[in-house]
């Protein structure tokens, strides 16, 4: 059975940071034809209707049909502690995060958190996420099982730590290697699931553990590796003390084989010029987590400067350091942070970051993040007048970008009319 989704279709053929807003493909009265989880065609509604009278029609009127949002960095186990008050990174980890993560030894707790997190993401229009799990292999099984049941393309990995964490949240270098390898072999490439080698960050791993995970990555270059980099100044000083031989924070990862083109480095706010050059040279991806950076008080990511240098960048909520499940709220926070840095991001740039940009950062740019024939049918349908405040502003819009920007700045899950995953409606307003 074929489905024909009718509405205003927005997708990107190119990166608007390089090509400007014309990188967007807009079909004002458009339609998307899907079958068996794939996009078959996109074009004017009138011609697709005429060519495919047999297709089941879903007429969304003036609503926007977008690629589903791609959240490039989140911690599903922190769903239950989102919006916890009053701490900076290290205290926040010790006070809220580690006690909650220790509960994931219980598979029932892990299953409930995974289901809650993914259902919240779908309700916010997010169809793919790259998540950290906890030290417990069961937490990875729970997440992949929940994503598989929803047909979602997700990436995730066991978060490895063998120092500077509570007793019940530490493994060893060998256990991190063995368990990560077993999980990778069990899950990577099954349905739409991808394994990610996941050392939490330099301070919570011994040199032996970083080396073991670097070795695993060398044996499996087909998978991604995710971690955190230069989020807060106190953290950077701590890393310098723990690894005095390293030139800088990034160099710690490089020394242990944890720097590469499939590497995903969350936050990356306080980078040295050498680190910026090296990240670009290697083709690694940075992941900007703006609500988290404001909420935990981390600092201002240099989006405009890094993009101008050719850096690959994705966008993410960083649940539960981040304060919202919404990629709309996340785009708004990215806009605010760029403004504080003296740069105004265009709505096309923000939307690209939340879709094709994040997909590309995750190494999934050929499969998701765009509405084009052959792409997987992950789509989000948005009401661009979802609240009275947004509606009255959008009514004055003279083009799509002006119509979109109030939803970027003021929108949330009320804007999400439907979320299609792998060609199936998985959420309806
Ligand atoms: N650095 C190491 N672990 C974490 C985490 O869970 N959240 C954030 N925001 N930063 C981290
Ligand atoms: Zn994180």
UniProtKB/TrEMBL annotation:
One Gene Ontology MF term: guanine deaminase activity
GO terms under biological process: guanine catabolic process
Cofactor(s) required for function per UniProt: Zn(2+)
Gene: guaD
Function field: Catalyzes the hydrolytic deamination of guanine, producing xanthine and ammonia.
Domain Aminodeoxyfutalosine deaminase/Imidazolonepropionase-like composite: 30-55
This protein's name: Guanine deaminase
Family: Belongs to the metallo-dependent hydrolases superfamily. ATZ/TRZ family.
Catalyzed reaction equations: guanine + H2O + H(+) = xanthine + NH4(+)
């Amino acid at each position: 059975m074929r489905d024909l989704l009718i509405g205003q279709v927005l997708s990107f053929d190119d990166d608007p940071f390089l090509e400007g807003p014309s990188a967007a493909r807009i079909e004002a009265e458009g339609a998307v034809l899907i079958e068996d989880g794939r996009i078959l065609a996109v074009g004017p509604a009138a011609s697709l209707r005429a060519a495919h009278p047999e297709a089941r029609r879903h007429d969304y009127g003036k609503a926007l049909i977008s690629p589903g949002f791609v959240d490039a960095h989140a911690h599903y186990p922190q769903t239950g502690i989102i919006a916890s008050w009053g701490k900076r990174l290290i205290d926040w980890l010790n006070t809220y995060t580690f006690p909650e993560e220790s509960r994931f030894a219980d598979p029932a707790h892990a299953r409930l958190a995974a289901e809650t997190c993914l259902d919240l993401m779908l309700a916010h229009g997010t169809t793919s996420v790259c998540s950290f799990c906890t030290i417990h292999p069961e937490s990875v099984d729970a997440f992949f099982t929940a994503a598989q049941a929803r047909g979602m393309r997700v990436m995730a990995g066991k978060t490895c730590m063998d120092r500077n964490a509570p007793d019940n949240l530490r493994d060893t270098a060998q256990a991190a290697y063995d368990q990560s390898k077993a999980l990778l072999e069990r899950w990577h490439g099954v349905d739409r699931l991808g394994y990610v080698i996941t050392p939490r960050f330099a301070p919570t791993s011994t040199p032996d553990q970083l080396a073991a995970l670097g070795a695993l990555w060398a044996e499996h270059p087909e998978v991604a590796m995710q971690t955190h980099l230069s989020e807060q100044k106190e953290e950077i000083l701590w890393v310098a003390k723990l690894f005095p031989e390293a030139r800088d924070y990034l160099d710690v990862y490089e020394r242990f084989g944890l720097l590469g083109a499939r590497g995903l480095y969350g936050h990356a706010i306080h980078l040295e010029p050498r680190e910026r050059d090296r990240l670009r040279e290697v083709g690694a991806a940075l992941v900007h987590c703006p609500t988290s950076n404001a909420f935990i008080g981390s600092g201002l990511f240099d989006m405009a400067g890094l993009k101008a240098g050719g850096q690959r960048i994705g966008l993410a909520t960083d649940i539960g350091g981040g304060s919202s499940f919404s990629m709309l709220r996340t785009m708004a926070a990215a806009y605010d942070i760029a403004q504080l840095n003296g740069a105004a991001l265009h709505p096309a740039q923000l939307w690209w970051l939340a879709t094709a940009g994040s997909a590309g950062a995750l190494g999934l740019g050929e499969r998701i993040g765009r509405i084009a024939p052959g792409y997987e049918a992950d789509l989000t349908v948005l009401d661009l007048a979802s609240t009275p405040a947004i509606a009255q502003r959008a009514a004055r819009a003279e083009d799509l970008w002006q119509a979109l920007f109030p939803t970027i700045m003021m929108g949330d899950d009320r804007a999400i009319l439907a979320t299609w995953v792998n060609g199936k409606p998985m959420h309806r307003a």
